[in-house]
Amino acid sequence: MMWSIPAMAQDQGNLQNSTTTQPTAPQPAVPTTANTTTASEAGQPQDAATAPDASQGNTVQTSAPQSDDIIVTGLRGSLQRNLDLKRTSSGVVDVISAEDIGKFPDSNVAASLQRLPGVSIQRSGSRGEPTGITVRGFGGDFNTTLYDGRRISTATGNRQIDFSTVGVDFIGQLSVFKTPDVTVASSSIGATVDIAFPKPFDHPGFRLAATGSGSIQDRAGKIVPTAGLLISSTNNDETFGVLADAIYTRRDTETNRVYVSGWPGGNFAPCQLTGNAGAANCAPTSDPKSANYANPNNRQNLPGWFPQQYGAEQQRVKDERVDARVAFQYHPTDDLMVTLDNNFSRQTINQDNYAFGVWFSQGDLRNVTVDKNGTAVDFTQAGSPTDFTAAENKQILQTNQTGLNVKYDVTENLTLEADGSYAKSWLNPGNVIGSKNGDIGYGNALGNVLRFKVDGKSSDAFPTISNFGPAGDGARWADQSVIGTHVTVNQTQHNTDELAQFRGNATWKQDNLTLKAGGQYYQDTFNFRNQSTFTNNFWQAYAGYGGPSGRTTGISPVPANIYQGSVSLDNFIPGFNGSLPPSVFVFSPTAYQNYLTSLGNPYAKNIPGFNYPSPTSGDGLLGFRGAFDEAVDPGSVLNVRERTWSLYFSANFKADVGGMPFTMNAGVRNETTNLRATGQGRLPTSITTSTADPSLLGIPTYTAIVPNTTNSSYSYLLPSLDAKLEITNTLLVRFDASRTLTRPSLSVLNPVLNVGNGQRVGALTASGGNPNLKPYLADNFDVAAEWYYQRNSYLSVDFFLKNVSNFIIGGVTRQSINGLIDPTTGILASFAVSQQVNGPNATVRGVELAWQQVFGNSGFGFQANATFVNTNRPYDDKNISQTGFAVTGLANSANFVGFYDKGGFQFRTALNWRDKYLLAFGQNQNTGAFGSEPTFVDQSFQVDLSTSYDVNKQVSVFAEALNVNNNQQSTHGRFDNQLLDVFDYGRRYTAGVRFHF
């Protein structure tokens, strides 16, 4: 027996719609938020809950008057349900609902959300998977994601979830609240996303859905599986029900990447520039006490930007995810509904990287050509080392949430609800090593006069390097006989996030008035810890490259059995200009580290090539006994406990104004937050140069560790007003005003300054948190018009404005720490210190346009939307102050989905475009003198295809092709020729079968 969630009648075949009046969309009995339903509504089957209400004149009859309402399944049915819910909502809400049980429109939650106006996505560069969303220019922590109306914990270090960790196959509905519902949350300046999962009494009786598919990425070349099963059943009396589902998903991806780790700003000396007469005796300096400073040609006073590190790598990713859910419902009477559920997910990402990298220091550059913006577009550097790296990265993100919800209809008018849940997330639980790295190469005596040249904009070109290879001999680029050991880095981030929450509210419904009042409490406890071989300095145990490079430290050659082949860099990023060396090595970091460990304890016997420290240096290598064990970085240890109490009240009433239906919803929410942040403070007491590598610095000694705890609190009143006037049966207008907030990321609340041990010459860094940060505040306004001109079709325009205060600025300042002297300059060490403060205000304004059209009985239709945004605080690339500020995430975007859905056959083409935008302040290497350098994402355009066919009422087959136009993701720094990353993650094809009963 086929079952589905019906929508308003949609004609099929030769059936024709006919009504006595223009239909008005029904008010669903199960609205978009779970906590607004009564107990009886929560226990009502979804097909009955969303069926047309004949008493309102909404019944759509066929040409045969005796026929029942037509139930439409598939994509068109889903689209109509979405419109019904959007239209009847008092605020600005967009909805995506499942086409059928176990059949969501897209294979990823974020991919589905980008079809909505004002919503765009961020992708993981290495996987190409959508991992986050931006709503009206606000991404990341500005958006709150709920599971069935509850916050979900996340151990990523931020508040937003990674949408690639959410299994999409058995989701019932996604709701995006662009204006707040004070009874749900007001803690998101962007939007609140509520993910609704199915429950037993949504579809009483016995139900089963199963899905199985295989997918392949064109470069990975291996078919990997996805399989899921959902079972739901209620007893004959329909008083008890249980639903359980589980799904396993795997994605394999092979991605090519070319990167520049950062474009720090600094000052060149005139002698460094091409054609300068003093180039032969060039000695750049910024120290007025230096003898070289007497020559004006040596004074570093010309602002400019240079690439800190350049390279290319191939990333091979295996992404596995297990999602499981169980839900019990007890419904002994129409007045009582008890729901107990548990959600579990575990994502394991294994990633193998094979790369080369070359490091540049601004003072070592010669023959520099800078363009009109000050970017070094051509230069040489003598003595440039070359590193080949391999990494085995592993990340496990596990989350489990248990919740209990009770709804009780005390009277016909009064409903009480209590909801509580506990969730915990783990990042890398157990003895996981998050990243195991091996670094080999050549340098020093074999260093070359490397040339670097920018070949164009980041959207279509990457830089060219030439004169590479040992001593500049390109034919020996991968000569294993001269390659020796270098640094060895292991590091792991261990996080946990525990979230306990409770909500209680009362709802009074009578005639055209609904009153809601209640309170909410949650406690979020976050623990942060990083451990690495940087902390104990074990990473430099065998640095230096060995004898062929003219060093006494490091071992060369590396054993031949370490190598497992190579990756050609020829035509590495198709369609991009630029030139790379011939190849990178494929080798195992585990085998590499095992080889070095097998050499034994360097303090029990003499091991040539070990980087023996001075006995009085305090260097962590004094504790090295052969194994590359990680040590906890005390400065990374952070505990944050956040407690929030909320009280809320709302009133919704309906009336006629001049014969036009009018709905107003007014509410207020008060939130009080107490925060406690505890970190471990220590300061470095010395800096030393590395005997193994002239580009490395070490911090062997620190002051004693001192725990530091800071308490802070804040309270805000958050009002909201939604008004809707139905001018005609098909045309309505909205006005919405509200205040919302977004709290700072938990990871930036550390009360101490952290100075890590792994430092580079000319690139000293430190980071500090700020537990006294206040939340962003936004006053939001919407004016919208929606025209529902025919069944399953509409046009809308929505003008929005957000005035945001308390913007948090992640600035970078240059400062000394603890009076340390830089051993490479002999003067006070200058650290680039990253820290956050509350800063200026900004206004964001824009317009959303949406159009959905279904062409009668043809089965054809389309969805189209476009969003245009701007701000009074755009990025100024000429501002080189350390306090530069701009609004991130703002970009014009557009989406188009054309579809055919008829006779059991469905086909969709989705076109997604997003213009260039400022992603964030900060780069992988952000050590410049001009503050926190920006990261921009270049414009992107991606085409996706999907199709399905219903073999019979129970079985359907489907196929999907993602990124068929081979869109590549690229980013750049302050100017568009400062390439930071370009990822080529290829196309993905999926085919499978679904069964439902």
Share of helix, binned? under 10%
Q: Assess the beta-strand content as a share of residues.
A: over 45%
Average pLDDT works out at: 86
Largest sheet: 29 strands, antiparallel
The total of beta strands comes to 52
Structural class: mainly beta
- Flag low-confidence runs: 1-34, 47-71
Instruction: Provide the gyration radius in Å.
Output: 30 Å
Number of helices: 5
Estimate the global geometry from the Cα principal axes: globular
How far apart the termini lie comes to: 6 Å
Structure description:
The chain has about 1000 residues and is mainly β. Helix content is about 5%, strand content about 50%. The strands form eight sheets. It has a 29-stranded antiparallel beta sheet that branches. Strand 16 and strand 17 (about 375-385) form a beta hairpin. The longest helix has 15 residues, at about 75-90. It is globular. Residues about 1-35 and about 45-70 have low confidence and may be disordered.
Index terms:
997 residues; mainly beta; 5-stranded mixed β-sheet; 5 helices; 49% strand; disordered N terminus
Task: Spell out the blueprint of helices and strands.
Elements: H1 39-42, H2 46-49, H3 74-88, E1 93-97, H4 109-113, E2 119-123, E3 130-135, E4 138-139, E5 143-147, E6 150-151, E7 173-177, E8 191-196, E9 207-217, E10 224-234, E11 240-260, E12 265-268, E13 302-305, E14 309-333, E15 336-359, E16 365-370, E17 376-384, E18 386-409, E19 414-427, E20 435-442, E21 448-453, E22 464-466, E23 484-485, E24 490-510, E25 513-532, E26 563-568, E27 583-587, H5 589-598, E28 631-632, E29 638-657, E30 660-681, E31 688-689, E32 696-698, E33 706-726, E34 731-742, E35 753-754, E36 759-760, E37 765-768, E38 776-790, E39 793-805, E40 808-815, E41 831-838, E42 842-854, E43 860-871, E44 893-902, E45 905-914, E46 917-921, E47 934-937, E48 940-950, E49 955-962, E50 969-972, E51 979-984, E52 988-996
Parallel strand pairs: 5-8, 37-41
Antiparallel strand pairs: 1-7, 2-3, 3-4, 5-6, 7-8, 9-10, 9-52, 10-11, 11-14, 11-51, 12-13, 14-15, 15-18, 16-17, 17-21, 18-19, 18-20, 19-24, 20-23, 20-24, 21-22, 24-25, 25-28, 25-29, 26-27, 29-30, 30-33, 31-32, 32-36, 33-34, 34-38, 35-37, 38-39, 39-42, 40-41, 42-43, 43-44, 44-45, 45-48, 46-47, ...
